[in-house]
Design a protein that fits this description.
The protein is built from five helices and eight strands; from the N terminus they run H-E-H-E-H-E-H-E-E-E-H-E-E. It has helices at residues 7-15, 26-34, 56-71, 83-86, 109-114; strands at residues 17-24, 49-50, 73-82, 91-93, 100-102, 104-105, 116-127, 131-133. The strands form three sheets. The protein has a four-stranded antiparallel sheet. It has a two-stranded antiparallel ribbon with strand order 2-6. It has a two-stranded antiparallel sheet with strand order 4-5. Strand 7 and strand 8 form a beta hairpin. It is globular. 23% of the residues are buried. The model is unreliable at 1-11 (pLDDT under 50).
């Protein structure tokens, strides 16, 4: 008999995760899609840190103001990761109070991917003249 998750198990799983955001361009999104929205691609040489951000507002700024000019489009991804995985990584504020991110070393990215709960969602898309919420 297949075990179906109870409400208390669902609530427990949710309370054991943290929601993070990752602004990406089209190339990175294609690689995420190729994984069936289950993992982020390895970092490129010269990219020693993976930077998920802690709020949608900051992700929006990066996707709109950096990804669009650099690659013609920007996307906001949202994902849940186990709190126990991110606990050792301190939060960094890199500007105003909204500019909060984690700095995960590239060599830890595969382990982070294994700690993602559920799928990576695309929640917004930006182009040079439009914004669409998903």
């Amino acid at each position: 008999m297949k075990h179906e998750q109870t409400i208390s198990e669902s609530v427990s799983a949710i309370s054991e995760t943290i929601v993070l955001y990752r602004p990406v361009g089209p190339k990175e999104l294609d690689l995420i899609a190729a994984s069936r929205y289950r993992e982020f691609p390895p970092r490129l040489p010269g990219q020693p840190i993976f930077y998920p951000v802690l709020n949608e507002e900051y992700a929006r700024q990066i996707a709109r103001d950096w990804n669009v000019p650099a690659s013609g489009a920007g996307y906001i991804t949202r994902f849940a990761v186990r709190k126990e995985f991110v606990a050792p990584y301190p939060m960094h504020t890199v500007g105003g109070a909204v500019h909060q991110e984690l700095w995960i070393p590239a060599e830890d990215l595969a382990e982070m991917n294994r700690n993602i709960v559920g799928l990576i969602e695309v929640i917004a898309e930006f182009t040079s003249d439009t914004e669409q919420r998903k």
